[in-house]
Amino acid sequence: MGQIELIANERHLQERLQHYRDLKVPENKLTVVSTRGYEDFLLDYPGVNERMTAGNTLEELLIQLDGSQRLTMTNQERENYSNALNNGELLFILMMNLNWIHLKAKKHLNFVKNGLQ
Predict the structure, then answer these.
(1) DSSP three-state, residue 114
(2) 6-49 pLDDT, tens digit each
(3) Tens digit of each residue's pLDDT (9 = 90 or more) over 46-64
(4) Structural contact between residues 109 and 103, judged by C-beta atoms closer than 8 angstroms
(5) Is 103 within 8 Å of 16 (Cβ atoms)?
(6) Which of 23, 35, 96, 113 has the lowest tally of Cβ within 10 angstroms?
(7) Distance separating alpha carbons of residues 83 and 41, to the nearest angstrom
(8) CB neighbours of residue 115 within 10 Å
(9) 58-66 vs 75-86: helix axis angle to the nearest 10?
């Protein structure tokens, strides 16, 4: 139903937020997970959710986000995401139908390619 992206730093986060804004993805479908807060950085994105780990496991955070664990992942992926958080990286979680996003991205690319943006 959704996806998780690893984000290395604030610049990378800015790029991903702008990408999804360009695709008209509602901000309330985006969540930034970190071990530290990003309130000041997210001022330009008031609808984006922010979660701090505060000792919660990845599964606990996912349940807090939408009441289920619709983001399926392998044990290796779960370990990679947990390690990334522990190393100060961010998780960028998109909670929406990916088919819709792929359609929007394709339309956006066609507009840009044809100079219609």
Answers:
(1) coil
(2) 998 888 999 999 998 988 888 988 989 888 776 677 888 899 98
(3) 999 888 888 777 777 777 7
(4) no
(5) no
(6) 113
(7) 23
(8) 6
(9) 100
Rounded CA gap, 112 and 17, in Å? 18
Assign residue 51 a region: left if phi > 0, alpha if psi is -120 to 50, beta otherwise?
beta
Instruction: State the CB neighbour count (10 A cutoff) for residue 97.
Output: 12
User: Which amino acid is residue 114, in one-letter code?
Assistant: N
Pair 26, 47: CB distance under 8 Å: yes
Task: Answer whether 23's CB lies under 8 Å from 101's CB.
Answer: yes
pLDDT tens digits along 61-117: 777 766 555 567 788 988 898 889 888 888 888 877 555 555 555 555 555 455 554
Burial (CB < 10 A; 0-12, 13-18, 19+), residue 108, is middle
Query: 95, 65 in Cβ contact below 8 A?
Result: yes
On whether the CB atoms of residues 33 and 51 are closer than 8 A, the answer is yes
- 34 strand-pairing partners: 52
AA identity, residue 46: P
